Amino acid sequence: MERSQQQEIGALETSLINLVQDHQQATVRLQEQTEKAKKDAIRKAVRVSNLLVDAVNGGVEESFVIEKRIESEIRVLAATITRFMKQSDQWLSATHAMNTAIKEIGDFENWMKVMEFDCKSIGAAIQNIHKE
Prior knowledge:
The chain is 98% helix and 0% strand. By secondary structure, it is mostly helical. It contains 1 helix and no strands.
């Protein structure tokens, strides 16, 4: 019996060793799968973050281009406004000069009427003096 017990113990020991080896192999395979999944997840996360950065940078770049275009248009509009202001000032000056000239013509016309009246008065006075 002792021999059969030793054989049983040997068989149990062999089974236990086989179980430990199977467990170690399963653990190694699981670690390899976990490491592979981890690397794959990291690679995909890097790809997603790169895509997000590209999307954000694309929007920022487009905003920057639009901002530069708007600034350029602002400069053009400011120059146009300045030109229109100068033109308006010239028109205002010309209108003022015309107004002044019209007033002077009116003043001259009025002076002429006064002079005509004075001349007629003087002429009438001279005729009255002459008649007497």
